[in-house]
Amino acid sequence: MKSLSPLIQHPTSSALMGLAEFSAHVLRTTPTTLPQIQPLLLSYLLALTNSELPSVSGKATELLSELLTASSKARYSLTWTLMRITRDNLIALPVLLPSQSDTKVEHVTGIIEAICRLALIGKDNTKSNLSPIAFEIGKLLGPTGGVEKWGWSLLSVLELVDPPVTVTSTSAAQMMLENEPEVSAWLPFPQPMLKNVSSMNTFDSLVRMFHALGKAAGDAGLFAVEWFVNIGQSGKDFKAVTGMWCACRLLEGISDVSLSEDPSTSLRLSRSKRLEKLARGLVKSTAQLWDSIHEDDPIDTPSEGIPDGHDEVPNPIQHVRGLIRLHDTLQITRGTPIGPRITTQPLLHSALSVQLISITAGILETRFSPLFIYSLYPILHSLVSPFSFLAETGLRALTFVTVCTSYASPANLLLSNFDYVLDSVSRRLSRQWLDVDATKVLAVMIRLVGSDIVERAGDVVEECFDRLDEYHGYEIVVEGLVEVLGEVMKIIKFEELSKLSNDQTPPVRQSCIDQQKFDSFIEWFAHRSESTVEEDQEDYGPAPRKGWGDDNPPDKANTGDQPEDVPEVMPDEEPPLTSSQALTKQIVQRSIYFLTHESTGIRARILNLLSSSVAVLSESTLMPSIHSAWPFILNRLADTEVFVVSAAAGLVEALVTSMGSLMFRRVWDDVWPRFRSMLSKLETADKINAVSHRIRGGVGTESVYTHSHRLYRSIINTMTAALKGVDPQDSSNWEVIVAFRRFLHSEAAEELQQCVQKLYLAAGTVNADAVWLALTATSGQVTSTSTKFLYESQWDIVKNVELILVIELSSSEVISIVLVS
């Protein structure tokens, strides 16, 4: 009988069907005479039910059903044998896994899966005689099934492999969700691999085995789920991680919820109250794992009595009688005993915990909403993780929970449960319980919700400033809170700009020269000194200063000329601040303090925050705060870090381009001297910079994403606006014209070339002759001894010079017409 086992892998269907019929015939006719061969022949039939050939698998299933009918004499003995096969295979599986014999493991898991399929046939049909199999599998996973024996053996060999660690400042999953928060294509959860399993087919067979066991056992298997979850929540070592993985796979089978399938296409099934009660308990207990997420891991704690490798602990002096036993390898010196160190896998443990929460959401569906107060923070915390595996798991979990709870998008889910997230974050920013990642959770929620968060932003801002008052000395906490304020400001700025773009109509372009207007101008210019009004010398006596009659005549009270209830607005009085503007004003006033913070990152974030507020607030609202902070802003232009200087220059640029006359004189008096020395230092630094252009006369860096490039752009745009607003002194104007010539080089960044062209056009309106002289002398078009010092042979600026001069010539046609007239 054993010699027939190779036939299971036979490629011919006739041979496989012959083996199935032979096995069934022997089992049917010899129930009492050959009881020892029943496990072997049943294993043949069970293995054939997993055949890839539908005719073979269908035939084997049909024969097994016939053997287990009520009329069969071998029914009771075969049912007992099937249960013994299931138990023996579960016990044998931990022995086969360390040997890395994938074929044997697939065979064993296939046998168990086939038995569970038979149980499902009886479970679906209550009148079927196969229902005792489902009952026995339920007992196997129940309190009396010995799960402590075979379950612990599985946990000792099923070790999950840590996924490759890719640490990034912003995870790919988070960027994907932020770029397209409304639409997120369904993708299955990422799954880790097993250490003792080399092929994906074997891994899938183990997953299918757990699913089949859960489906066959039903609610009776919830005891095994609780047992595995208790092991998983007891620590973060590899056994706890494996216990959480087994619990997830069993719960998927029991609840018929699959993390590898789109929940929007699955059928909504009714679940038992026992299953729903367990799901609620699992959500609460799993969410509590994030309460102690920053406790010391066991990996950093050596075993008791074992000294650390760096800090040698001397052996105590002891009085010993008898012989000193030598080491087995005859080493005279005593080696330090090395005990087993506990290896933790916090990354996998958190990812599988999030998977467990997702499965419970699939079980409870819309009844999962009251549990958002516990579950949203773990999901969002995983989403902001710098580890790609955990972040991707958080992304899939957020999408899965969104679909299961019938929300249109993750943004709608977070907005509807905004108070839950804010409460979770505030509780984790208290003195008794501080989680530095809580600020990242709040920031990602604001980015995901988008413009709808403006109505709730007041609560966020109050929470942030309350925490800033408490933790202003902790750099990492302050930086996170300032980042949250920056995200709020970005959204408010975007909203204000969108309102302006909707209210304003695009201007109609008119031709530069209107001959009719110039004719009228010439006519007025010729007679401008002639008086056309005759003076009346007659004295009419005193005249009233206002119209005769009552101030409020009754006959005109309701004529419709002036509404009664509309308050009159004075021409110089500004409209009241909107809620967004009032919130922005509060943020600006309370953030200026951090311009002098010792952390360079915080100083840069505050400067960017102030830059965003320029587009939201008016001059009268913003400039008092800027006036009080102006000395600190100037000091930031001399900061030691380039990105802080770039942020300060960006703020000055925003103020000059938006605030107008209030900033022009400050730029020439306070900012331009600093810009002039800054340009000379950057020119020297570009010669030794690793990312600068390596060509002759190269200007700037090769990348447009460097801080120096942003600094150059801000300086040029600032001085362009200053040239348009105020007529500077000739010396300052000449300094600007000479300082920015190198950016006209053809090898400079295209963006810088365009910006500096606008600067020279603005300088041409002030002194066109100075611009013409400097540019033509630099390009070599004018050769003179007095202008020889301006010539630069390494700069190719001819094309840009010709373009600037042509534009200036076309704009000067208007002036020439007036002068000729």
UniProtKB/TrEMBL annotation:
| Membrane-spanning segments | none
Give the Acidic residues compositional bias ranges: 562-575
Question: Which SUPFAM superfamilies does this one have?
Answer: ARM repeat
In residue numbers, the region (Disordered) covers: 530-579
Where on the tree of life does the source sit, at the highest rank?
A: Eukaryota
The UniProt record lists the TTI1 C-terminal TPR domain at 484-772
Which InterPro entries did the record assign?
ARM-like, ARM-type_fold, TELO2-interacting_protein_1, TPR_TTI1_C, TTI1_rpt
Which Pfam families does this UniProt record tie to the protein?
A: TPR_TTI1_C, TTI1
Know the name of this protein?
A: Armadillo-type protein
Per the UniProt record, the source organism is Lentinula lateritia
